[in-house]
Specification:
The chain is an alpha+beta fold and 204 residues long. The protein has one domain. Helices cover 16% and strands 23% of the residues. It is built from four helices and twelve strands, in the order βαββαβαββββββαββ. The chain has a three-stranded antiparallel sheet with strand order 1-2-3, with helices on one face. The longest helix is centred in the middle third of the chain and has 13 residues. 38% of the residues are buried. The N terminus is likely disordered.
Length: 204
């Protein structure tokens, strides 16, 4: 994504990059198995956001998210705040890149949104990701503990101690947490079975 060439840190300095984003419809073919008949949101109500983000290497990278149309504005607000704070994102790929496999995406430390599927670790419930207004961010550094006490992904177990901040970890009061509160999205990290990677518009 192009940097904002008008934003500079000082005379003679290199341009300071800013969030750049393009929002388009999502081709049905690009959704793959992440959408199927019976899902609560039709493909026509989904949008593809292509935007830049800071990586763990200190460089700016391009990423993609699929979200519900009404989630575009709050999501862009949050990621602008994250970008301005240089909060790093490991990678940002639509769930179709993982054939809809949440375990595979979490193991890859992926940041994603729409995926019509059951709740991981609780297959009797439909995940809020099925509605396109939920986000999982840096899934390894921000693991999920399911109702059976299992940590997802397994590599995230080392990050259950939230008192020791590391790069990419979401903590109460940081740029991501604060921006989410400002748009009214709630954090799964507050649950009895915490989901530190998860934010959603309705708190589920």
């Amino acid at each position: 994504m192009p940097a904002d060439s008008d934003s500079r840190s000082g005379f003679g300095s290199a341009p300071v990059p800013g969030l750049a984003a393009v929002v388009t419809a999502v081709p049905r073919s690009a959704l793959g198995v992440t959408y199927h008949p019976g899902c609560p949101v039709a493909p026509g109500r989904l949008r593809l956001i292509r935007m830049n983000h800071w990586g763990f290497d200190g460089r700016v990278h391009s990423g993609e998210l699929v979200v519900r149309d009404r989630a575009v504005k709050p999501v862009l607000y949050v990621f602008k705040k994250a970008f301005d704070a240089k909060f790093p994102i490991r990678r940002m790929r639509p769930m179709a890149a993982y054939r809809g496999s949440d375990p595979a995406a979490m193991a890859d430390d992926n940041t994603s949104a729409f995926n019509c599927r059951p709740v991981t670790g609780d297959p009797g419930k439909l995940s809020q990701h099925s509605y396109g207004d939920a986000l999982d961010i840096n899934t390894v550094e921000n693991p999920y503990v399911d109702v059976n006490g299992r940590v997802h992904p397994a590599a995230g177990a080392r990050y259950l101690d939230r008192s020791r901040p590391v790069k990419g970890m979401i903590r109460r009061g940081d740029a991501v947490w604060t921006a989410m509160r400002e748009v009214g999205w709630l954090w799964g990290g507050r649950w009895a079975h915490p989901d530190y990677q998860h934010f959603s518009a309705n708190g589920r």
